[in-house]
Amino acid sequence: MTRFRAGPRADLLVAPLDAFTALYHRPSGITHLLSTPAPELLDTMGEGEWTVAELAAALAARFDLERDDAALTARLEELVDAGLVERW
Amino acid sequence: MRHAHALRIGPVGFRIGSDRPEPIRALRALYRDYPAPDDGVPDFTVRLFAPGPLRRFLRPSVMIGGDFMIPDAAPLPLAQGLLAAEMAMNLQMALGQRRYLLLHASAVEREGRALLMTGISGAGKSTLGALLSARGWRLMGDEFALVDPASGRVHAFPRLVSLKNEAIAEVERAVPDGRFGPLLKDTPKGDIRHLVPDARALAAMREPAIPALLLFPRFGFEPAQRVLARSEVFVRLTQASTNYVALGEPGFVAARRLAEEVPARAIDYPDTASALAQVEALWAAL
User: Fold this and answer.
1) Most CB atoms within 10 A, among A24, B79, B142, B162?
2) Where in chain B do CATH 3.40.50 domains reside?
């Protein structure tokens, strides 16, 4: 089962600006501009390791959302491409 | 190098060396009231040299060099040596400055608070800076604003104001007692004439200011104003900075702080009278 994890929290400087959140990733020196749900996703993941199903359940509970595992997988893959989340 | 001059602009010291005496003579004349670098040690070195042995004599021209260089830079005619020196100093700042977040912006100050104006070339940064300084503002710089990531304050960089094309006559009219350099015709940027910042700007060049208003002016449109979202301000600031990426985390901290704390407006203007009226009104409403 594929698991995902975000890097250490200390690697990130997070600046919620408005509809966008600016995020500085210390290891890469890259600045990202994120929109919902990416900041919420990273926040929920914390430093833990998650399967899509576990994370979908956690998000549904926290944000009162309909579960959509396919959409969540797509968002996670975007964060993997951005270097903010690792496939584990 | 056979000819050299050292000077300090705001907190930054330069040493400019040249094969030929003409550019140094022009620099000395216009920068005569600028201090020497702190302890005589420059932060950046600029070199102006002939492209090849023959070009010292045949259509004499100058190449730009220094601590940081652009390999394929084209030489400029010797008559534009002053412009070459200015471009070389800007290049050292743009590529080498690591202490401050460098914003491609003009800045003026009143009562310890700074107005920053940033925009593309031709947006009117230099012209508005020069005209505001003729109306009681302190000119902090027409090209670079230096933002200290630790304090959030803006440091001045009052190099010679670089006026281009139509702006030359307009500023000559507005600043009749200003000290201007020679008119440089047909440079790669059009006609250029430099204005020496006034005595007040030079006397206070070491005094930083607290950023109070960010403007993104655009010339050639009907008067209009738009409040900018913080995220748009943040992105525009990173684009307006020449060293945001190189600076890393301190750059993020400085840009974030400006975006979060300083009111920002995009302003369109058809002529400088309109721009000045908008600037004064926005400043009064802070």
Assistant:
1) B142
2) 101-284
